[in-house]
Every structure is written in structure tokens, then in C-alpha cells.
Amino acid sequence: TILKEPPKIQRLDDSVVNRIAAGEVIQRPVSAVKELVENSLDAGSTSVNVAVKDGGLKLIQVSDDGHGIRYEDLPILCERHTTSKLSKYEDLLSIKSMGFRGEALASMTYVGHVMVTTITKGQLHGYRASYRDGVMENEPKACAAVKGTQIMVENLFYNMIARRKTLQNSSDDYTKIVDLLSRFAIHYTNVSFSCRKHGASRSDVHSIATSSRMDSIRTVYGVSVARNLIKIEASDNDSSTSLFAMDGFISNSNYVAKKTTMVLFINDRLVECSALKRAIEIVYAATLPKASKPFIYMSIVLPPEHVDVNVHPTKREVSLLNLEVIIEKIQSVVESKLRDSDETRTFQEQT
Ligand code: ADP
Ligand code: MG
């Protein structure tokens, strides 16, 4: 047999490596919005406003009133692996911020055009700089600015033709962005959020800071959802298992929907957990056989060392210690709450 010559292995250019990695972190416009909003929340903002053009492909603009970015930091702001949130690996064990990788802004500059306007406390004016491929394109220009930071991402995926085409044909990215902001709005009740199409006077999500979770759910998801919710709580301080606390709202038997809505925060991070979602759906199907798919808002708090936040480049999933125990506990709380509420209802209908 004739052995073929092995192909030569070569080192990829940084620019190629970075563009490949960026496509993974920023999968669609909504992923960029999530990163930007998380940065705004990490910056201690009390107000986060989003404007979007063409489903986010033409423009994503996120403005906040957070602590801003130092002038000296602007040159490296969008380089890969530059962050103010982590300095050594061990910090990850106790990380409270949502960001830690220093990759999001960099990624955006590899797949779009990024412009940052920011002002820090006590400054008379702000600065504006634009970035491409990780690099600041010009000296920061002094400009008028109100408190905080505004980040604009334009022409997302301009250099990824296939992805741009696929996304152009799907009209649902704006819907995904609205959905994302709705989720943040009902968890971060001390922050006001808005989301609108660029140029539109009406916003599609508009929440005001409130002390009541129920009020914010009513504002964001509407009365028809809010009036059919049951409060749930669970905690486990048994030293044999993990410490955990959960609280939230779940829909009762009067709620009608074709699809499950599950808004899940673990240690204040918006995440997905399909195992938990399925486990709750099973309880609904068994307890309220005629009821529709549930609406669930749930916030779970665990010791930070029990959560591995670093399992996915988009940080969409986290992995938990003792997930089975936690799921069982939540299932039993959900089941008993649903039974109680269903019995009350049957009783009310009879009388
Ligand atoms: P990470 O959030 O993982 O640190 P990012 O690329 O998302 O990485 O952001 C890099 C850094 O830029 C952050 O660590 C933070 O210091 C700064 N930054 C980004 N967005 C904002 C913002 N809206 N307000 C203040 N600082 C910000
Ligand atoms: Mg970030």
C-alpha cells in the first residue's frame, strides 16, 4: 500500500483563532445582548436600556448607568482575556460577577464593529472609542456623556456570510432579545430595563425598579400570568446534602400556555437546566393532567463552590453539585403546592 504523506501541521494566526472563538461566544444577536446586559449589571447599574435594529444584525445598543470604564483601560478593553473581574484561577470558586472570561467584548469586535462611550464618576466628560479585531482603532475622543456606559455593536457577522444569511432569514431574534430582557427584568427587580426597536417610541419590555417580584412579573408578563401564580419556597439546611435555598412562582391549574416558560436563576445567573425543567413538567403532567404547560420563575441560591460556572463558553449552562437531591426536593415542593391549589379551586367551584 502507498502511504500518503501526512499533511503538515501549522500554527493558526491569532486573528483566525480569535474569529473562530468569537463565533462560539457570540452565536446570535441575542448572545451579544446577554453579554452586554450582564456587563451592565456587573457594573452596578440601576437602569439598562437596549435598542436593536434589524434583529440585532444592524445595531445593538446597550446603555447603562453603571460605574463606567477608566480612561486608562480603554486601549485594552476589547483585547481577548482582559477583565476587571478575575485575577487568579481560584477567584472563579467564589466569583459573584456574571463575567469572568474577559472574552465577550473581544469576541464582538471580531464579528462586528464595536463603539464604546463611557464616563466614570467625577469626570466632566466621557470618552468614545471604537474597536475592531480586539484593537482600539483610534485614540479615545472626549465627548459629552451621562452617567455610565453605552456600547454599540454594528453589522454583526459582517465577516461570517453563512451565519449572517441564516440569521437574516429568521425573523425571531428580536423576539429572543425581548424574551431575554423580560427574564432579567423579573429577577433584577431593583434595576429598570427597557428594550425597543431602534427609533420606535414604544418599548417592548419596560420595567421599573420595584420591591415586589409579583409586581414586576405583572408588568413584564401581564396580568393573565401574574394572577395565576403560586408562590413557592424550599430550602435544605441538612448538613448531609448541599445547602440550598429556592424561591419563586409557578403557575396554577388556571394558567393556559402551549409552551413551558422557565425562568431560572442560579446564584443570580440566568441559566438553563433541562433536567430541572423536565422534572417540573413531569410533576405538572402528573398532578394537573388537564392543565397546560407551566410558567415557572425560580431563583436558586447555592454556595458558590457548589456551582461550576465554567462549563460553557456562553455560560448558558452551569453544573451543580447534588443536582439530583435538589431536583427531588423541588419536585416535592411543586407537587404539594399544586395539589393544595387545585383542591382549593375544586372546593371553590363546588361552593
Ligand atoms: P468580562 O465581563 O468577562 O470581564 P467582557 O469582555 O465582557 O469580560 O468585559 C471586559 C471588561 O470591560 C469587564 O471586566 C469590565 O471591567 C469592562 N466593562 C465591560 N462592559 C462594561 C460596562 N457596561 N460598564 C463598566 N465596565 C464594563
Ligand atoms: Mg462580560
UniProtKB/TrEMBL annotation:
Residues 217-339 form the DNA mismatch repair protein S5 domain. It comes from the Eukaryota. Signal peptide: none annotated. It is found in: Nucleus. Transmembrane segments: none annotated. Belongs to the DNA mismatch repair MutL/HexB family. This is DNA mismatch repair protein S5 domain-containing protein. The chain holds residues 17 to 367 of 1047 of the full protein.
